[in-house]
Amino acid sequence: MWNNKLIVAWSENKDSSINLHVKAFNGSSWSYIDGNDDNGLNVDASKWAQNSDLATDGTSLYIAWHETSDGQNQIYVKKVRWHLVDTSSRQRAGIRH
Q1: Nearest Cα to Cα of residue 53 among 30, 77, 34, 35
Q2: Which superkingdom heads the taxonomic lineage of this protein's source (predicted)?
C-alpha cells in the first residue's frame, strides 16, 4: 500500500524482451503509474527487466529491478512522482552486480 492505493509491479514478456510495468488500484479501478508505455520502465526496451521490488519510506514509493544488458545484470531504481514513475532519466548506466 502506498498513498492509500494497492501497488503492483510485474514483468511482461514482449517479443524478445521482458518489460516491467506498475499499476495502482484505488479501490475501484486500476491505473498505470509507469506512463502506460509499451516499454514499461525498462531503461533499454530490448533487455529483460526482472525481479522488481517496491519500497516506501512512508512518503515516497520506489521501485527497483535489474535488467540484463550486455551480458551483465544492472540494477535500476525509480521514484514515483505523484501518480507517475519518474521516467525522465532513462539513462543506460546502472549499478552492475
Answers
A1: 77
A2: Bacteria
d(CA 50, CA 73): 10
The boundaries of the domain holding residue 49 are: 6-96
What is the count of structural domains for the chain? 1
Is the model more confident about 71 or about 8? 8
- Provide the 8-state DSSP code for 5: B
pTM of the predicted structure, to 2 decimals: 0.77
* 1 falls within a domain: no
The amino acid sitting at 23 is K
Q: Judge whether residue 46 has pLDDT over 90.
A: no
In-domain check, residue 24: yes
Q: Can you read off the three cell numbers belonging to residue 27? A: 479501490
